[in-house]
Amino acid sequence: MKWKNQLTGMKPYQPGHSVDEVKKMFGLNEIVKLASNENPFGSSPKVNEFLDKLSTNHAIYPDGYASGLRHALAESLDVKESQLMFGNGSDEIIMIISRALLQPGVNTVMATPTFSQYRHNAIVDGAEVREVKLNKNGSHDLQEMLRQIDENTAVVWLCSPNNPTGTLIEQAELEEFVQKVPKEVLIVLDEAYFEYINEPTYKNSTELVKNHENFLVMRTFSKAYGLAGFRVGYAIAQEELIFRLDPVRAPFNNTVLSQAVALIALQDTSFLDECKVSNEIGKKQFEAFASAHNLHIYPSHGNFVLFEVKADSDFVFEELMKRGYIIRSGNALGAPRYIRVTIGTQQQNEDFLVNLLDVLVENGVFA
Ligand SMILES: *Cc1c(COP(=O)(O)O)cnc(C)c1O
Fold it and tell me: So what's the pLDDT on residue 367?
């Protein structure tokens, strides 16, 4: 068959071990998954109530415009309904953007390490990938990213808070960057962890959308809203930009059920507030651990932390899995000798850190 050349040698996404697999592999009853930045509290109890007494009609197509969710979200963001596009997770928004703008002969600029899907989609679409190393403190090197932009650049990707470091792009730097990027280049700001940001100087980036026709913000219901399984992400941009991208989207890309639960979750702001408070407490648990044991930790603004373990991260990953914890090894994330851990409940974090300390002591890290 006539496959695109760029697919040669590409491997499918490797999902981590599932909770059930790890249970079987190691004969464990209880597994704590702190690998994918899902909300340890699940989703709003109101979503669960709704699901318990569910009676949707499964034979009809979903509303391809997601009208109910769109109306509520536009109102809460204070943008026009026509400034939104929904995706089957923000993963699909990344694919739509790539499909619309990336092709052989153009390039795309991004940080490294950052969220893997920007690069992945760029390769599938045959574009040249220009990766710019993060600064030592984990921040985006926006000056170098600017230098990498040329007349063939179609998209530049920013991730704030950045996955896997959790680092935030500083507001003034972000504004200056957006100002300087040529209008012909689409700037994508991935804010998958927006709801967790606790930084008074960071403004709502929908303000930047108002003044920049080439600026798009991505957010998701997968992380703080606790709805990763329902696959709802969205883009916010000026109307004309959304209008150009929307034809690339499959017409019924969100299900009836996912639209309904995202709408309920959106309205339960107190659940979100509680999760944010708990996340701050959890973050301090990890920061205290790192500081007590002299391990470098990136300043996180998300619901996960990337920190040093002074040992092979695949090994630490394996040892933790035997003890019932699924985390992410830094090796796979471009951060060797670090691990990325989702901030769990206070109890989960406490127990996790006891187990991590055991693993590190056993292996002579603190000897
Ligand atoms: C988790 C994550 C996503 C994907 O979110 P979905 O909406 O579930 O597809 C996108 N970007 C970043 C940075 C993420 O961490």
Answer: 64
Segment 95-111 shows an average pLDDT of 98
Residue 171 Cα to ligand 1 midpoint, Å, equals: 21
Q: Which of 97, 220, 300 most suits a substitution to test ligand 1, by most atoms within 8 Å of the C-beta?
A: 220
Whole-angstrom distance, CA of residue 339 vs CA of residue 35: 10
User: Would you say the CB of residue 129 lies under 6 angstroms from ligand 1?
Assistant: no
Ligand 1 lined by 319 (C-beta under 6 Å) = no
- What gap in Å lies between CA 217 and CA 191, rounded to an integer? 7
Domains belonging to the chain, first-starting first, are 5-43+270-361 (3.90.1150.10), 57-267 (3.40.640.10)
Confidence band for 11, pLDDT divided at 50, 70 and 90: confident
Residue 325, C-beta contacts closer than 8 angstroms, at least 6 positions apart:
31, 32, 34, 352, 355
Residue 56 confidence (pLDDT) above 80: no
Q: Give the DSSP per-residue string, 195-237.
A: GG---TTPPPTHHHHHH-TTEEEEEESSSTT--GGG--EEEE-
Q: Is 357 exposed, middle or buried (0-12, 13-18, 19+ CB in 10 A)?
A: middle
For 17, the token pair is 């071990």
Q: Is 332 helix (H, G, I), strand (E, B) or coil?
A: helix
DSSP states along 79-141: S-GGGEEEESSHHHHHHHHHHHH--TT-EEEEEESS-HHHHHHHHHTTPEEEEEEPPTTS---
Asked if residue 192 has its Cβ within 6 Å of ligand 1, the reply is yes
